[in-house]
Amino acid sequence: MFCTNCGEKLIATEQKFCHNCGTKLIATSKVIYHKTERIQNVSAPKIQYVPIKPQKQLKKGPPGNYSKLCFGLSLVSIVIGIVSLIIGFNYYRFVYWSYYSIGRLVFVIVILLLRGGGLSLGVLSKISSSKAEKLEPYNDLEKAGSIFGILGIITNSLGLFLSFFGPWSILYFIRRQY
Known about the structure:
Elements lengths: L64 H30 L7 H34 L4 H26 L4 H8 L1
């Protein structure tokens, strides 16, 4: 700080008189001046407004026809898949035909058709599930049918794969026949 009369630098900030000229000093508060600058060429960020779609409220309710159909088809698909896998792996224990007999070939074809039907029922279950999601209120029967439908598709697909490429497959039978 400086003396307002002579401009001499003061020794202490609490001085009441100037040590050079003796002028009584007025108590002033310390004022800090900041240099303000104007920033050039700065643009505000662009804000995009996105409309929010109202969320569809899940209405719980009793299962409808599509939910019941989905659940029923999925259960039949799983049962066919599991039964055909059990029979397919163990048919040599149940059937005592000679390996190259026509009866064994018919049996393998029936298992193939059974697994194909089970796969079709699993796919139909998923189609019914998608219709139930759109047209019916939310219910647990449709969700269970959807999950069981996927399991039915998996078990029957696995069975069909093994029917063609497994150790007792139809391709193995045809290859050994000729």
